[in-house]
Amino acid sequence: MELNVKTLEGKDAGTVSISDAIFGLEPREDILARMIRWQLAKKQQGTHQSQTRGEVSRTGAKMYKQKGTGRARHHSARAPQFRGGAKAHGPVSRSHEHDLPKKVRALALRHALSAKLKSEDVIVLDQLVAAEAKTKALSGAFASLGLTNALFIGGAELDNNFKLAARNIPNIDVLPIQGINVYDILRCGKLVLSKAAVEALEERFK
Questions:
Q1: What letters, b where the CB count within 10 A reaches 16 and e where it falls short, cover 69-88?
Q2: For the chain, which domains are there?
Q3: Which DSSP symbol is given to 205?
């Protein structure tokens, strides 16, 4: 399969060959959903916690005598039913991570790339390089390409001027090829790959 390559100025820069095994799959929503759930679970801090009966700072003395009051039997004021007491079955600090096989993660990335290509939301640029770190100049180039919400994937090393100029533009993200992931691909409107990124993906999945 061949894709047209453009320059950052919108001019034609030839074509690039892409593999059907990476960009030509029929996207499976179940695999993509599993991958996104895995990614979001991995990002959760898991630091939410409430106090148990053993952690509440409150007296442990018996509230009132056992018999003769006509009231229910109670011991500690730390019990969950009392104001200022502990929380029953509250959240505790834990990891939300769960396992997902490495082959499924690799397959999910290929399905995400295929889904973007199928919806005609993939653009290939010859290189992600800016002459100077000026946000105004780069945002003008993006506007001419019709890019208002996009994820840019460069090679192993990103051009520093491009990275600095793009970081202040809303809804524009820039990642090296090592940082490509399913969640960011599906979250963005357009996926913009450099030729170096396409070559790296072909090498990774060959």
A1: eeeeeeebbbeeeeeebbee
A2: 2-45+97-205 (3.40.1370.10), 50-90 (no CATH)
A3: H
- Do the bridges between strand 12-17 and strand 2-6 make them parallel or antiparallel, or are there none, so unpaired? antiparallel
Residues whose CB falls within 8 Å of the CB of residue 68, separated by 6 or more in sequence, listed in order: none
61 contact partners, CB below 8 Å, separation of at least 6: none
- Could you give the 3-state DSSP secondary structure of residue 190? strand
Closest by CA position to 125, among listed 1, 20, 3: 3
Distance CA 22, CA 114 (A): 7
pLDDT tens digits for 10-60?
888 889 999 999 999 999 999 999 999 999 999 999 999 999 999 999 998
Point out which residues pair with 4 in neighbouring strands: 15
pTM exceeds 0.85: no
